[in-house]
Amino acid sequence: MLERGMWSWGNCHCWRRRLVESKLFVYMLLEALVGDLEDAAFAVVSQTPKTNTSLSLRRASNLNDIMWKQEKLLLAIKIMKDIEHVLVRVSKSRPRWANLVKAVDSRVEKTLAILRPQALNDHRALLAALGWPPPLLTSDIEGDRSSEMLNPLFLMHGEKKEMYSQNFLALCALQHLQAQREARHYMDFTKQSCYRDDLWAIDELVHPVSLKMEYHFSKWSDQPKFVFALVYKVTKDFMDGVDSVLQPLIDQARLVGLSAKEAWVTAMVKILLAYLERRVFPVLVSTYHNSDENLEVSSSWLDLLDLIITFDKRMQVLSSSGIKLTGPFLELEGFSRSLSILSVFNEHSDWLQIWAEIELKIANDNLEPELEDERSWLCRIGKQSEFGYKEEVDIFLLSTREDYKAPPIADSVIKVALAMIERGQTLPSKRMRSQFARSSATIFLNNFFVILLQRCRDLELMTAAIQDEALLRVACTVNASRYCESVIREWDEEVTFLEMTGDGNNNQQHPRLFFADEIGYLIKLETDCLEEIMSVLLLEFDAQCWDYIRNIDQWEKELSEPKVPVMDEYNLGISPGFVQALDMLRDHIEKLKLYLNSKDFLDLWRSIAEGLDYFVFSSIPWSDVKFSRSGVYQFKADMRALFHVFRPLCVRPEAFFPLISNSLKLLTITPKDVDYFLRVLVTDERRKKEWLLQQELHHLTINQAESILRNRKFGE
């Protein structure tokens, strides 16, 4: 039978082997250890004075009893460490002995339930004997003056300092042991405690300070700036003492990764956090719900949030001064979460929603006058001389609002949205930042995009002639949309937004953009507006050249005077019925060049050219018209004039009219080639296709080519 006090883990190496061999031996070993633990705990509790603890400590003539209690507490902690060591080995090697482990844990937990409150009470009594907490000089806060508070930590000397140090180390050891036990319960034997909760010894420093500050908080309920100022002042004034006295003790306790400064700042922030959560925010929330969009209520919210954001930044500076986090602490988002008062929204998402709604309402109210001012919607229009060909490499070098020719209102919207997003970046978690951005800035942007769409739809462009004012308005809408799209695309590439989209539904190889829906909406808006411009322009072109296209006689008749030399397209004038349509086309393209940003204009004029190519080709009744030689020359001259409208925009405009270009080539090939195609290849479709490809006629079908060639009246 093992006797209490006779066992030592380090001196009995053979017992380590026997540990896994005999359940009875393990039971006896643990029984002895638990008995020693209970004796040590009883000794600690039995020595507690029955009178006022603080008073007795101050009046004690010697500290032998106190030192003896600390020795017993350290002995109890050492025994618990030995018990924990045995339980870890048993849990790993003998999982079937779970009932034994539970029984021992139950007895150890009962002992801990006695030891921890007693250790905390002894620590509080010791702090009171040292004169903690000092008086709070709030008059200097109200008078906006600065003064140093006397720090009792600096005044400790001799036996008192030694006693406090030992007590601090014992409390840290007890907390560390409890963290190890929790890690075992979660079956994580390799986990090292990161102390993401508060350090007990620091909490005991802060608790009496918070009791004193609560009194002053109640006096300043209408002046929260004094509340924030007091917490900051107390935190800063005691910072040096905490760092110089407690940090060496934390290092001595081997609490890796712990900073006395950060633990102190965290505990002080939680005082203010608890006060705001309990007393301030509920009042603001109730007032907000009971008021009808009261400006004063919104101002109160924003004033408080301004104080919180400023306070958080100042406290972050205090906590990180001289601290360089390494290893896993850099990757822990929650490691510094308690350093932010804004973490109050983590448990109250409805409060965060109220904040976002207030920010959104104020942003909308501030933007409304600018939305109603038509001058805010005016684009920057260049000079008429700007119409001309530019290298495409310059077309896509767009960055500023001026480059995009966007109206000033677009820049205002972007700045307001960005301000809301940056304000939300002060929130301590990705989830809260994402919720705030989607509930404020995203809704704000979407509202503006709907206004852009409405302005485009209200124009009534579908008329016989396009008005310049309407054309300018649509162009400005497109420019504003394109500018907003480019800006939010840049935002989506930033780490800030990539982090906010990092949820479980995201494909890591193809992550969803934060503004994916907004970008898609803008792309559709731009496409619809440009298509509307193109459709109206083509309809007007059709109306003005209708008679020209339907006048078959102009292409069938030969010259009436045979003695006149054969004319070609270079010395022929443009058909009178085609001139007005070309003038209209050139005028609108020039204006679009001035109104639209270069990228959208590039897409638009190419689409217009493609539409004109199809319109002209499909409008000519190729199977009915019999082209004469002079008719071909006239048609070619008219089409060269059409190409010339687009010559300022590119080097070879005919390349954007493939159907017309192929038709002209067929109308001017030699009679020999015509005969070869129509007679020799009459039944060989494959060879006809090859012949068209050899002639570089890639855009016409065999039937279309035959229809054109069969209706030539010359060269037969």
TrEMBL record:
One of its GO terms (cellular component) is Dsl1/NZR complex. It comes from the Eukaryota. One of its GO terms (biological process) is regulation of ER to Golgi vesicle-mediated transport. This is RINT1-like protein MAG2L isoform X2. It comes from Ananas comosus. The lineage of its organism: Eukaryota, Viridiplantae, Streptophyta, Embryophyta, Tracheophyta.
